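Example record

One chain of 408 residues, shown exactly as stored in the release files.
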Amino acid sequence: MIPVVEKEIIKLPSDQDISGRTFGAEEIAAITEVLQSGVLITTKGKYGKLLESAFAEKIGSKFAFACNSGSAAVHVAIAAVNPNPGDEIVTTSITDMGALTPIIFQGAVPVFADVDPKTLNVTAETIERVLSDRTKAIIVTHLFGNPCEMEDIMELADSRGIPVIEDTAQSFLAKVNGKNVGTIGAIGAFSFQQGKHMTTGEGGIVVTDDEAFARRMFLFINKAWGYGDQNPDHYFASLNYRMTELQAALAYEQLKKLDDCVAQRQQMAALLDALIADIDGVESYKPAPNATMTYWKFCLRVDDSKIAEGAVGLAKALKVYDVASAPRYVVKPAYKCQVFREHNTFGDSHFPFNLARPEAIDYNDGNFPGTIKGLHDVLVLPFNEKYEEHHIEFLANSIRDAVGACRK
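Predicted structure tokens for this chain:
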């Protein structure tokens, strides 16, 4: 049944344009300064260094290195761990491809861990099931700004001597026990892509407290050229992942707004939580008691025993109110993508999958019940720091009306 709309439709701010972004005179001035200087490369300019220093201080890490995308950030982190061909890196079944192909490009085998269906995050339990003596690193993704259960994960990883890489692309300033995610494991990788808490369109940054990892990350971003060394050389095979001064200037000004951005998201999320708490059949995602969530998106678990067609049906009903939402979040789990199913990598070699243990690349759905259930139930709602109370009230009322129209 399609709901009958009897109220004014409010256009919600979108992070895909200026309505949902915080760009202002500060960013324009910084970018203008860079253009007028004529110095667009961070190895010669000032903003790359300013950004790295300020970000490290903000997040609470010793080292930070800017790069040109979130995917590059993950690649840099993996390169720092320096896997041998055929080594395994455990990752999540629900993430962007940009966080997965870097594993392959460093010659390692991606091993997918299942997730908790209530958070879509990996857990210590799901990770432990797929560890082996070949495991070189664990990548945890704090999905939607909701931290993974890092205490248990770090206890497991530390007991095995395995470094943890935190994919913090969606979780700026989220905390576990008061500590920023990205600084709990060995390395944190952030994204400045268009829709993130702070943005340069494309861009990223990696952080660590470990001097050896820091050295390799710095080099990997810079074609392994030893800038500042007494006798520099290109020490190993790597790429140019440098950020431009234009991006760095924009990111530096965006960083100054990050606290307010996160606070506004959290305040509006709390209001939305309160307004929809009594709606039977939908439940919002919430952080663990020892954690804070920073709401890259606002997500609902939809009970298809109470709502016709579940998340898909509710998404259809919300379109009537011009509320765009994404049932399932991703079209399919990562392991179902063709690159993994057919091992389409380098020519006809199937490398590095040709070095893998059969168990490591067993992509049967039966191994991923949490993934299947979690994706079936989730509905991802739009969210950004430009939401104000009237937007939240409209969104809550739209959800209530849409659920009513879909009620079984």
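Notes: The mean pLDDT is 96.
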